[in-house]
Design brief:
Elements lengths: L5 E12 L2 E12 L3 E5 L6 H9 L6 E6 L2 E2 L5 H7 L1 E3 L12 H13 L13 H13 L15 H14 L4 E5 L7 H14 L4 E5 L3 H7 L2 E6 L2 E6 L1 H6 L1 H8 L3 H7 L10
Parallel strand pairs: 3-8, 3-9, 6-7, 7-8
Antiparallel strand pairs: 1-2, 1-4, 4-5, 9-10
Helix pairs in contact: 3-4, 3-5, 4-5, 5-6
Length: 267
């Protein structure tokens, strides 16, 4: 069966901060329709790479091709309008507004329309109906009138994913969506992302290896700014270069992080 085309093609991407090379000729392809996970030890450069893909940082060299177009020099707003949208490690929502108002603002930014003066914002019926549908999709239908700042941490992360969904992304860049969550909240986020698989292409940066191996169609490993391996979750579990990158001198602990029992250690 022919593989799906690459919606994102990162070619020899480099990012230097003075003498520090944060991204070292990284090559990455994300296929349309897949959930592609990006993993790596702390300090590997994962968030720096996401910053470059989203337009928050300009690369020093290399190319970013999105849906066949060279997007390397595109500003962030152009990427968003083209469907390349990201979430952040630190939740970025309007805490003094309701869930529904947060989602309506995201929809407004997508459409480019303006709120009409001298009329209640709720009169924008179509916008708020669309916002209510997104709230339902991310599991916040019963919280849609609650102030975002009064949601639990996990619910705030669900809202942030909803705000990305409201922009109708073609590719979602998810930067550690389960950061700071407990097991129940992480479980709900995993179920949400599973429900989106096949509908929206996703590039997921995440440290929760159980979640990564449950969610991902393919996994790429970033070490010192360079992609050292890409493959199926099982390929990555058993890849000796990936195992060395995670193992260091603490074999048992890092095997646990990779979701591989210590008893299965390779010789």
């Amino acid at each position: 069966m022919t593989a799906a085309k690459a919606i994102l093609d990162v070619r020899d991407l480099v990012k230097r901060f003075g003498g520090l090379v944060a991204t070292d000729h990284a090559n990455l392809q994300v296929r349309e329709g897949e959930l592609h996970a990006l993993i790596g030890p702390n300090g590997a450069g994962k968030t720096t790479l996401i910053h470059q893909l989203s337009g928050a940082l300009a690369p020093t060299g290399g190319r970013i091709v999105f849906d066949g177009a060279d997007a390397t020099d595109w500003p962030m707003h152009r990427r968003v309008h083209a469907g390349l949208v990201r979430s952040y490690q630190i939740t970025s929502i309007f805490k003094r507004l309701s869930v529904l108002d947060n989602l309506a603002l995201a929809i407004q930014s997508r459409s480019g329309g303006n709120m009409r003066f001298w009329r209640p914002a709720r009169a924008e019926r179509e916008r708020y109906e669309a916002a209510a549908e997104v709230a339902r999709r991310v599991g916040l239908a019963q919280r849609q009138d609650r102030l975002a700042g009064n949601l639990s941490h996990g619910e705030q992360r669900q809202l942030e994913v909803g705000m990305v969904l409201a922009l109708r992304p073609r590719l979602m860049l998810l930067d550690e969506p389960m950061a700071g969550m407990g097991p129940d909240e992480s479980g709900r986020m995993v179920e949400l992302l599973l429900s989106l698989k096949g509908e929206i292409t996703m590039l997921l940066v995440e440290h929760d290896m159980d979640a990564v191996f449950r969610l991902a169609d393919r996994v790429s490993t970033l070490v010192f700014g360079k992609i050292i391996a890409t493959g199926s979750p099982e390929d990555i579990r058993s890849n000796p270069d990936v195992r060395r990158a995670y193992l260091g001198d603490d074999e048992a602990g890092q095997f646990k992080d990779l979701g591989v029992p210590a008893a299965r250690k390779a010789v």
